[in-house]
What does this fold into?
Amino acid sequence: MDELLLIPRPKKACPSIGTWPLPAVGTISLNFRDDAVRAAAQRLRASLPHDRAKTWRIATLDQPLNKAMEIHLRLDRRVRHPQGYEIYIARDGVTAVAATPQGMFYAVETLIQIARQSGEKWPGIAIQDQPMFEHRGFYHDISRGKVPTLATILGIIDDLAALKINEFQLYIENVFAFQNHPDIYGDTDALSAEEILEIDAACRARFIDFVPSISSLGHFEKILQRPAYRALAEAGPDGEPWSLCPTDRRAKKLLEEMYAEFLPNFSSRRVNICCDESWDLGKGRSAALAEQIGVGRLYLQWVQFCDSLARKHGKRIELWGDIILNYPQLVAELPPEAIVLEWGYESDHPFDRDAALFAASGRSFYVCPGTSCWNSIAGRTENAFATMRRAAKAGVANHAAGFLNTDWGDGGHQQMLSVSYLPMAFGAAVSWNPTDSADREVIAAASRHVFQAESDDFARAVADLGDVHIAREPINAALEFLLFREPWDQTKQLERVRRGGLKTQLKRVEMLREKIAAAALHRPDAKLVRDEMVFSADTILHVLERTQARLAKPTTSSFGVQALFARLSAQSGRLCRNFKRLWAERNKPSHMEATLAHFLSLRREYGLRMAKCEKRR
It folds into this structure.
């Protein structure tokens, strides 16, 4: 396997003697009919070198006509795992075997990766592969600022399918166009029912379960802040709205109507009701009932209510596990078919402890780490990888049903989508094969197959950019905190900065930026990916120079400090323009100005600082 880079890495792969010379003319043959696999076979044909897409055909054949000139895809029930497959490449041809169309779909995705790096001589190899986790998901936040266009979402689905991901969720608070409640999304370019249906169809065609995910208790503030719904909040008319009030019949009616309009657009038999971080539950209008039965049981009753709504639509619930963990004695009383989502986003999260609790309760559960991209500029690579490994290990040990990699957008979703690609790929790798996914190999394989770079250096540069804050000479502060946070918080972070590390880091980031900018990529959105990562590097360079200016010694002349802030002001102007352009490439217009305001505030700050320097001169 040293010669081939594959992601996810197969469970078992044994090189064999010899190579298969790819014929100039040949056939991709299937002994069955399936539209999804046929579409995958078309992508395989397109990946063949030197215009062979024009000379190779796709046909349905029970047996190969000329094995040496065919890639034969055969369904055979001797492959036991429904998502498993086998591939045999030898001098006399290529055969892929699977028990189901889904397993064959994954076999073809592996063949595409082999074709991408093998040219006209494919190495002999025997692969026997199947996933560790039955459910391998990706969860993408579209409710904190960026609502992606349909084209962007369909592009994400293509990436997920290539990585053998089979579950996809989009986080919905108020970004669905509810026709019965138009006030909910009035200031947002929400997803329409027609768009949801198209996403659902695209997922089905790639063996991905598109699971609806909708806030159903906490994180309801975007709706409850609107006058028409303010009275339904737990906090009451004078408090800060956050959760629905579980004792208000009108709140139950609203959620019932939202489910009735939202859920029928999904073919999935599941729904993620969320119900996480309901911090104010039992502290407002439901306090009297909470006093009688306890906050934990109050929460449990609401989950049971949501479950009853979901079952009316033929769906099984998923829910985040953070609240019920506070009441471990109630876990066994969750609805019998509920799937608990055990989430944690730091490398020391106790997945093993919590997974053991859920396993002992008899409830099905997932482990849910994250990409660590939110509240960052270029991600936190080391933390993301370590958290995913920890989650996968705990999931395997406690027989978790699934692995769900979360990609949040806290703080206005300032990070670029491309920043999420590498941790997305790493999550796919460890959820398929947790034990044989070395960091370096995954990064190299992601460079080749996710970014479709000509060199392994591209993804390595992306990974290193995500770890600038913990490099050999760290600035010892979260980069994003030094840019967009409140002044008091920035001051606290500045106190942790080592001046000596700034120059070293500036040189390092400049070097990484050059590698990224010069890389040759062959994805459909290659230029955009490169531009987004260059923007991320430019933003980090701006943070470092900004920090230098703010830490300038008192002996520095006012003229010198003024020049520093003048340069920063010009940089922030370019960042604003590029941020607007990149946002528009992938997302709908709404809320861009709110997120852009962070960059605009920097320009105002620099103007004030330059004015102060002018007065001192």
Summary: The two ends are 66 Å apart (CA to CA). The domain at 12-129 is CATH 3.30.379.10 (Chitobiase; domain 2). Residues 472-477 have pLDDT under 50 and may be disordered. The longest strand covers residues 12-21.
